Amino acid sequence: MGKIPRRAILRLAMMLAACCVCAFALDPSLDASQYAHTAWTIREGFFRGNIYSIAQTGDGYLWLGTEFGLLRFDGNRYIPWQPPAGQNLPGNGITKLLVTSDGTLWIGTYAGLVSWSGGKLTRYPELDKQFVAALLQTHEGTVWVGTLGSPFGRLCTIKNSDVQCQGQDGALGRMVASLYEDSTGALWAAAQSGLWRWRPGLPTQYAMPTTELKDLNRGDQEGGLLIATRDGTRQFAHGKSEAYAIPGGKSVGTNRLLRDHDGGLWIGTIDQGLIHVHHGRTDLFSKSDGLSGDVIFSLFEDREGSVWVSTNGGLDRFRDLAVSTISIKQGLLNDAAWSILAARDGSVWVSSRNGLNQWNNGEISTIRNGSGQPDDAPQSLFQDDRGRILAFTGHGLVYVEGGRFVPVKAAPGGQVHSIAGDNQGNLWLSENASLLHLREGRVVEQVPWSRMGRLESASVLLSDREHGGLWLGFWRGGGVSYFKDGQVRASYTAADGLTPNAVSDLQLDHTGALWVATQDGLNRIKDGRIATLTSRNGLPCNTVHWTMEDDDHTFWLYTACGIVRIAPTELEAWIADPKRTIEATVWDAADGVRLRSTAASYYGPRAAKSTDGKLWFVTGEGIQVIDPRHLPFNKLPPPIRIEQITADHKIRWQNMLSEAPSNLRLPRLTRDLEIDYTALSLVAPEKVRFKYKLEGYDGDWQDAGNRRQAYYTNLSPTNYRFRVIASNNSGVWNEQGATLEFSIAPAYYQTNWFRALCGLELLAMFWTVYHLRVNALKRRHNALEQQQALLERHQAEIRALNEQMIKAQEAERMRISGELHDGVLQQITSVSLRLAKVRYQVPPDSEATATVNGVQQQLIQIGTDIRHLSHELHPALLQESGLPAALSAYCEEFSKVRGLPVSCAADESVQELSPGAALCLYRIAQEALGNAAKYSEAKKVDVRLTRSNGTVCLSVSDDGIGCTPDVLRRSGGLGVINMRERVLQLRGTFEFKSEPGRGTTVKAEVPFRPAP
Parallel, antiparallel, or unpaired: how do β-strands 105-109 and 503-508 relate? Predict the structure, then answer.
């Protein structure tokens, strides 16, 4: 293997270094005005004083050297930097900054040089009181310093803290303004005395037409140099210099030069703004375009490819955009374009009120209106099968030929919103009054919109070349129709599930499905079925202006909140399940998209796909372009830094001077805690997203959005670990993130010994309370036992009294029954017999006979009632045969006497029931049957006597009117009260249920106690 030349090694090393610095570079085909531009101006208070130098350290921070000191900038906010206590910068005015390969920050000032590394500031006394004008690190690691001095400037080298200076002989003049190492390893110096090739070999001086050299950078030729001078830019090669011809530009005073990593040249002028030279083109970006100022002090390209410019008015950033804009500055006739058409030859055509533009390989040509009047302007565009570019103007249909408009005379004038055509040479035009059908330039059919049930013209036409029909989308009320062979073959409206409001676009995809864009979502129509994609399914918003399928079958949507990309897999999954939520990528205003709430134009097409796969669309503010295959993507995960921690509004730590301690201790009783963090992605800091978690407090990651502070209140005294992660503008996450460990000191009452003491005191208090409670419970228990004994004694006395009462009642019943049976009934019987004798003594035809008979019958009935009453008062059968037999006999007799049907079912096993319980149930049955006969107007009564589970149950139910509250009031309710008391004396349960119109049920259940 042959020896590799040193020159090739140097070139390879520089190329690798360039690749490591930038994640991606700016698109070199664009003008400066087509990049995203942000300005931070002195006038608005962002900075104080001019920024003379810019550098970026390995942690991602941007360092700004100003005339009032050094600033650290994260793309979102800046922080003034001060050295540690006891150390000072040689001067406050920062003139030059350099970050070397080992991460050291070199700071050149009005009065000397220092370096900052590892939390230590190193000063170089050999350069004290020297104005540092140039700093450079060569490939072998040596730092070169160019100074402005009195009486002479010097050129110094610093290696391993050893400082060696040259120029004391005055050969360099008063200043070395710039240093540059070319691809061969040669070191060049721009001095007051001219251009010097300092090494290799002996220093060689080259005379220049001007002695005021400003900056050096790489030229167009290998080994060549570009030199910025007050008189303009010069190019030096092969020992000779000549004026550098800026394409399409003029020579202007140059202050700074930057060759970006894609070969674009940025020229900072002395007083005319910024010149951008790229791809043989030149564009100027000045204060009138939004630049913070026209005097350029510094140019810098960061590691993500953004270009930074400091001016006399502030700081500017230029970065790439996913969506670029073509405007009047690039040659459009009018930014308010009407329609756009991608031709089959790769060109793109744009119509506006001023005429027609053709974009072809980056060059724009123009065809203006013949009259210059808006009525003659090309409206809708179309390319026919013959390849002609057709446009409709206010005076009719024209085509482009030889750089001019050629009219199609048979076509009428007016206003046409959309043009479509098939592969048989038919043209369809959506004119205000009707749908026009043209063939070979002649109108062969004119279909009024009323014939289609419409009041106004279609907003968009789409030819179905496969099936030969025409799809129409409408403005008012929305809706879609399919027109073929002179008839509407199908129609879809809101009643069919289509989203309402105007249809802004129609597209057929590669499967033949129709996509309908509306202000309320995107509809898909296939085989007569409609599915709708809205914000409920993952769209960022509902208003869809158009949709386009790219060459990879990815779907692109222009919505009111940005450009949306939906991958084929996501779309297929949604088609299979329309209720599914899709995942989509969105590019919004921060990515260059012009946002609109309504369609930008009433003419079509409003979007087109060129042969190279790019998507073009009108926005009302120029033409916008997005290249699906070359989207800027930031692959660099953002470095993350925790910047400071503030406790109770006092800063406890900052990372300006040192790394975070291993365990930062915060004061006791810390109430309000704020942790500031940042992510060093400078492309689009507003699109950086953060998540953080405080281990020891947060259970999961907290989504902070783009907020760069975390807030906590009233944290407990313990050890904590704060973690934060972030993603850049392309969604690439730094999962490792940054951490900060800290603890909060406990107050004396939050310490373990205090808790232990409190615990012991609490235990003692609980023990005392426990014993007091136990004693109280004992006293209460004793009192309850006494009360219970007293209660039981009273209950026993009451039961004894009740039993005596019942016995007395029963004895009284027996006495009355005996008197009725032996006295009254006998006398009634005697009287009845005497009346019978009298009846035989009276003549049969006498009126007295009838009277005697009537009295005799009444006496017989009275005797029967007295006998029944006697049996009720003293049921002899109950004592002789038991409760079942007595109850059955009583029901039968009751039914005869009262004339009320009574059914009785008595379990014979109840016969062994004790006499007291049997008498209780018998009396309840008597009372219940008596109430039924007196008050219920029942048609029948059902009596049931059963025994189960150690209890005897008696139920008496009737189908009468029920016992109303009035009846209870009239009767006093004594019968119910007596029945309940009888049952309770036997420790049983009693239930009385009665509802108007639903009869009455009396149920008594007592424990079964057999007779002794």
Answer: unpaired
